[in-house]
Amino acid sequence: MARKPNKPRNTPCSPCGGTGEVSRTVHVGRKRRSVGQQTGICLNRLGAGEIPATD
Length: 55
What we know:
The chain has 55 residues and is mainly β. It contains no helices and four strands. The chain has strands spanning 11-12, 21-28, 33-41, 50-51. Strand 2 and strand 3 (33-41) form a beta hairpin. The chain starts with 10 loop residues before the first strand and ends with a strand. Residues 1-38 are annotated as: Disordered.
């Protein structure tokens, strides 16, 4: 009996590390001081956090 081929594995997205969220520094004022970080979804895979093996 022939073996089934293995399914290709998904790899974690590099900007978000597989979490689906990325942090950006928030700057305010004329001197552009950094005051904190704001999180948002990863735009590489729209929050999925994984890159399909076919890419």
